Amino acid sequence: MKNTSLAIDFSLPSYEVAHQLIGATFTVDGVGGIIVEAEAYDQTDPASHTFVGKTKRNASMFGPPGCVYVYRSYGIHWCLNFVCEKEGHGAGVLIRAIEPIVGLQIMEERRGTKNVRLLCSGPGKLGQALAIVHSYNGMPLNQSPFELVPAKKPVDVISGPRIGISKAVDLPWRFGLSGSPFLSRPFR
DNA sequence: GCGACGATTGGCT
DNA sequence: GCCAATCGTCGCC
Questions:
Q1: In this predicted model, what pLDDT tens digit does every residue of A70-92 receive, in sequence order?
Q2: Quick check: pTM over 0.90?
Q3: Which of A124, A129, A147, A180 could make an SS bond with A77 (beta carbons 3.0 to 4.6 A apart)?
Protein backbone atom coordinates (compact mmCIF):
# COMPACT_ATOMS: atom_id res chain seq x y z
CA MET A 1 0.00 0.00 0.00
CA LYS A 2 1.16 3.50 -0.81
CA ASN A 3 0.81 6.55 1.35
CA THR A 4 -0.14 9.28 -1.11
CA SER A 5 -1.40 11.96 1.27
CA LEU A 6 -0.30 15.54 0.78
CA ALA A 7 -1.69 16.70 4.12
CA ILE A 8 -2.70 15.04 7.36
CA ASP A 9 -6.50 15.12 7.74
CA PHE A 10 -7.30 14.45 11.38
CA SER A 11 -11.04 14.38 10.72
CA LEU A 12 -10.64 10.95 9.11
CA PRO A 13 -11.01 7.65 11.01
CA SER A 14 -8.00 6.86 13.16
CA TYR A 15 -6.78 4.00 10.96
CA GLU A 16 -6.72 6.38 7.98
CA VAL A 17 -4.82 9.00 9.96
CA ALA A 18 -2.34 6.40 11.22
CA HIS A 19 -1.70 5.38 7.61
CA GLN A 20 -1.22 9.00 6.51
CA LEU A 21 1.19 9.71 9.35
CA ILE A 22 3.74 7.15 8.17
CA GLY A 23 6.52 9.06 6.45
CA ALA A 24 5.56 12.40 7.98
CA THR A 25 8.18 14.40 9.87
CA PHE A 26 7.38 15.23 13.49
CA THR A 27 9.44 17.32 15.89
CA VAL A 28 9.06 18.71 19.41
CA ASP A 29 11.16 21.83 20.02
CA GLY A 30 13.09 20.98 16.86
CA VAL A 31 13.90 17.42 17.96
CA GLY A 32 12.48 14.37 16.19
CA GLY A 33 12.32 12.74 12.78
CA ILE A 34 10.19 10.63 10.44
CA ILE A 35 7.23 8.71 11.85
CA VAL A 36 7.76 5.07 10.89
CA GLU A 37 5.21 3.31 13.12
CA ALA A 38 1.75 4.20 14.47
CA GLU A 39 -1.32 2.41 15.83
CA ALA A 40 -5.00 3.39 15.55
CA TYR A 41 -7.56 3.27 18.36
CA ASP A 42 -11.20 4.36 18.61
CA GLN A 43 -14.10 4.14 21.01
CA THR A 44 -15.63 1.01 19.47
CA ASP A 45 -12.33 -0.76 20.05
CA PRO A 46 -12.02 -2.85 23.25
CA ALA A 47 -8.25 -2.24 23.31
CA SER A 48 -8.67 1.55 23.39
CA HIS A 49 -8.42 3.70 26.49
CA THR A 50 -11.67 5.34 25.33
CA PHE A 51 -13.68 2.09 25.11
CA VAL A 52 -15.10 2.65 28.61
CA GLY A 53 -16.18 6.20 27.79
CA LYS A 54 -14.81 9.56 28.81
CA THR A 55 -12.76 9.63 32.02
CA LYS A 56 -10.37 12.09 33.59
CA ARG A 57 -7.35 10.41 32.00
CA ASN A 58 -8.63 10.05 28.44
CA ALA A 59 -10.61 13.33 28.28
CA SER A 60 -8.28 14.95 25.73
CA MET A 61 -8.88 12.05 23.34
CA PHE A 62 -12.54 13.13 23.31
CA GLY A 63 -11.41 16.69 22.55
CA PRO A 64 -10.77 18.37 19.19
CA PRO A 65 -8.94 16.41 16.46
CA GLY A 66 -5.38 17.51 15.74
CA CYS A 67 -4.48 17.75 19.42
CA VAL A 68 -2.27 15.44 21.46
CA TYR A 69 -3.24 12.88 24.10
CA VAL A 70 -0.41 12.07 26.53
CA TYR A 71 -0.69 9.24 29.03
CA ARG A 72 1.57 7.44 31.50
CA SER A 73 2.31 3.82 30.68
CA TYR A 74 3.20 1.25 33.33
CA GLY A 75 3.83 4.09 35.76
CA ILE A 76 7.08 4.81 33.94
CA HIS A 77 6.76 6.06 30.39
CA TRP A 78 4.99 8.97 28.69
CA CYS A 79 3.28 7.99 25.46
CA LEU A 80 2.12 10.28 22.66
CA ASN A 81 -1.13 10.14 20.67
CA PHE A 82 -2.78 12.34 18.04
CA VAL A 83 -6.53 12.87 18.46
CA CYS A 84 -8.62 12.02 15.37
CA GLU A 85 -12.00 12.10 13.72
CA LYS A 86 -14.36 14.41 15.59
CA GLU A 87 -14.71 15.96 19.03
CA GLY A 88 -16.45 13.47 21.30
CA HIS A 89 -15.52 10.37 19.25
CA GLY A 90 -12.63 9.20 21.39
CA ALA A 91 -10.38 8.20 18.50
CA GLY A 92 -6.64 8.61 18.20
CA VAL A 93 -3.31 7.36 16.93
CA LEU A 94 -0.47 6.14 19.14
CA ILE A 95 2.92 7.20 17.76
CA ARG A 96 5.10 4.13 18.30
CA ALA A 97 8.37 4.79 16.48
CA ILE A 98 10.31 7.56 14.75
CA GLU A 99 13.42 7.49 12.58
CA PRO A 100 15.69 9.98 14.40
CA ILE A 101 16.72 12.83 12.09
CA VAL A 102 16.87 16.19 13.88
CA GLY A 103 18.58 16.83 17.21
CA LEU A 104 20.35 13.48 17.33
CA GLN A 105 22.75 14.55 20.07
CA ILE A 106 19.93 15.77 22.30
CA MET A 107 18.06 12.49 21.87
CA GLU A 108 21.23 10.51 22.59
CA GLU A 109 21.67 12.41 25.85
CA ARG A 110 18.04 11.98 26.90
CA ARG A 111 18.07 8.26 26.11
CA GLY A 112 21.54 7.51 27.43
CA THR A 113 22.63 5.68 24.29
CA LYS A 114 24.33 6.50 20.99
CA ASN A 115 22.67 3.60 19.21
CA VAL A 116 20.36 5.45 16.81
CA ARG A 117 18.13 2.41 16.47
CA LEU A 118 17.34 2.53 20.18
CA LEU A 119 16.47 6.23 20.39
CA CYS A 120 12.82 6.22 19.27
CA SER A 121 11.94 2.57 18.48
CA GLY A 122 8.96 2.27 20.82
CA PRO A 123 6.31 4.53 22.37
CA GLY A 124 8.12 4.88 25.71
CA LYS A 125 11.54 5.46 24.14
CA LEU A 126 10.07 8.02 21.78
CA GLY A 127 8.46 9.81 24.72
CA GLN A 128 11.82 10.04 26.47
CA ALA A 129 13.80 11.07 23.36
CA LEU A 130 11.34 13.85 22.47
CA ALA A 131 10.89 14.85 26.14
CA ILE A 132 7.13 14.34 26.04
CA VAL A 133 5.58 15.59 29.28
CA HIS A 134 2.07 15.38 30.68
CA SER A 135 1.57 19.13 30.33
CA TYR A 136 1.45 18.65 26.53
CA ASN A 137 -1.84 16.80 27.01
CA GLY A 138 -4.60 18.47 24.96
CA MET A 139 -2.30 20.89 23.15
CA PRO A 140 -2.84 21.46 19.40
CA LEU A 141 -0.31 19.95 16.99
CA ASN A 142 -0.20 22.95 14.66
CA GLN A 143 1.67 25.20 17.04
CA SER A 144 4.83 25.35 19.12
CA PRO A 145 6.55 23.22 20.33
CA PHE A 146 5.15 20.80 17.75
CA GLU A 147 5.80 20.63 14.04
CA LEU A 148 4.23 18.08 11.73
CA VAL A 149 5.10 17.95 8.03
CA PRO A 150 3.38 15.37 5.78
CA ALA A 151 5.45 13.05 3.61
CA LYS A 152 6.51 14.83 0.42
CA LYS A 153 6.62 11.63 -1.60
CA PRO A 154 4.51 8.47 -1.36
CA VAL A 155 5.99 5.84 0.93
CA ASP A 156 5.41 2.08 1.28
CA VAL A 157 3.11 1.41 4.24
CA ILE A 158 2.47 -2.02 5.72
CA SER A 159 -0.05 -2.99 8.40
CA GLY A 160 -0.55 -5.73 10.95
CA PRO A 161 -1.83 -6.54 14.45
CA ARG A 162 -1.13 -4.07 17.23
CA ILE A 163 1.46 -4.67 19.96
CA GLY A 164 1.14 -5.03 23.71
CA ILE A 165 -2.64 -5.33 23.89
CA SER A 166 -4.84 -8.21 25.09
CA LYS A 167 -8.13 -7.28 23.38
CA ALA A 168 -9.03 -6.98 19.69
CA VAL A 169 -5.65 -8.51 18.88
CA ASP A 170 -6.68 -9.40 15.33
CA LEU A 171 -7.48 -5.87 14.17
CA PRO A 172 -4.69 -4.83 11.71
CA TRP A 173 -4.44 -1.30 13.03
CA ARG A 174 -0.67 -1.12 13.37
CA PHE A 175 0.97 0.71 10.45
CA GLY A 176 4.63 0.97 9.58
CA LEU A 177 7.14 2.15 7.00
CA SER A 178 8.03 -0.92 4.99
CA GLY A 179 11.53 -2.19 5.69
CA SER A 180 12.44 0.52 8.19
CA PRO A 181 15.16 -0.48 10.69
CA PHE A 182 13.67 1.94 13.22
CA LEU A 183 10.45 0.03 14.01
CA SER A 184 9.76 -1.10 17.57
CA ARG A 185 9.36 -4.61 16.14
CA PRO A 186 9.41 -5.98 12.61
CA PHE A 187 6.19 -6.69 10.68
CA ARG A 188 5.73 -10.22 9.46
C1' DG B 1 -10.23 2.94 50.90
C1' DC B 2 -8.04 -0.89 48.33
C1' DG B 3 -6.32 -3.92 44.84
C1' DA B 4 -5.48 -5.26 40.12
C1' DC B 5 -3.55 -4.04 35.91
C1' DG B 6 -1.61 -1.78 31.96
C1' DA B 7 -1.25 0.95 24.13
C1' DT B 8 6.59 -0.70 28.03
C1' DT B 9 11.35 -1.19 28.65
C1' DG B 10 15.79 -3.08 29.88
C1' DG B 11 18.45 -6.38 32.17
C1' DC B 12 19.33 -11.14 33.17
C1' DT B 13 19.02 -16.29 32.20
C1' DG C 1 12.48 -15.80 26.58
C1' DC C 2 11.26 -14.27 31.29
C1' DC C 3 10.53 -10.89 34.75
C1' DA C 4 10.86 -6.82 37.81
C1' DA C 5 10.24 -1.83 38.00
C1' DT C 6 6.72 1.63 39.13
C1' DC C 7 2.41 4.38 39.75
C1' DG C 8 -1.86 6.51 37.99
C1' DT C 9 -6.42 5.05 36.79
C1' DC C 10 -10.37 2.52 37.29
C1' DG C 11 -13.64 -0.59 39.35
C1' DC C 12 -15.54 -2.43 43.25
C1' DC C 13 -16.27 -2.96 48.37
A1: 999 999 999 999 999 999 999 99
A2: yes
A3: A124
